[in-house]
Amino acid sequence: MATYFSDRGKTLLIDSDQNRTAVAWAKLGKLPFDVKDEKSSIKAIAGNDYIIVDTPARPESNDLKELASNGDLLVLPTTPDVVSLRPAILTTKDIPKGAKYRVLLTIVPPYPSKEGVTVQQDLRCWFARITSITMLLLRCEKPRRHNLLLNNVPVKL
């Protein structure tokens, strides 16, 4: 996601996930945006057009509310499987009313599999009962397997 925004303006990715995967990738020197951990991000925020915060998989309710209330858009990435979808659905219950958010299906099996489209339709039905939501569907497994940036891999959005 940060790569996408870095093509549109100066971008900072704040890695608040305990695994610090983004920080590790940044040390390889191949990312087109700045990456900082939470503690070192304060001084780096000024002058950026976009700030992306990578949170732990299931952030604390108060943290989620703060991010949703103070950010422009909250993106909840999830894979199209029951083990991942359940926490994503539960997470939406902690998002304050009126906050702008989207669910991003990732690591969706490519065509001819219909798994991603089926899950997308199921989620639309579920979310239609509680809020209007736009589902984003990303059909691309390759970047995760090979640590590639999405702007270097053909994807179908």
Q: Can you summarize the main beta sheet?
A: 3 strands, parallel
What order do the SSEs take from the amino end to the carboxyl end, as H and E? HEHEEHEHEHEH
Global structural class = alpha/beta
User: What is the helix fraction of residues, given as a range?
Assistant: 25-40%
Count of alpha and pi helical runs = 6
| Average pLDDT taken over every residue | 75
Beta strand %: 15-25%
Instruction: Please compute the radius of gyration using only Cα atoms.
Output: 16 Å
- Principal-axes geometry comes out as globular
Provide a short characterization of the protein structure.
By secondary structure, the protein is α/β, with parallel strands linked by helices.
What can you tell me about this protein's structure?
- This protein is α/β, with parallel strands linked by helices and 157 residues long.
- It has helices at residues 2-6, 21-27, 61-70, 82-92, 115-128, 142-146, and strands at 11-15, 34-37, 50-54, 74-78, 101-105, 135-137.
- It has a three-stranded parallel β-sheet.
- It is globular.
Quick tags:
single chain, 157 residues, alpha/beta, three-stranded parallel sheet, 6 helices, 6 strands, disordered C terminus
Record the SSE blueprint.
Layout: H1 2-6, E1 11-15, H2 21-27, E2 34-37, E3 50-54, H3 61-70, E4 74-78, H4 82-92, E5 101-105, H5 115-128, E6 135-137, H6 142-146
Parallel strand pairs: 1-2, 1-3, 4-5, 5-6
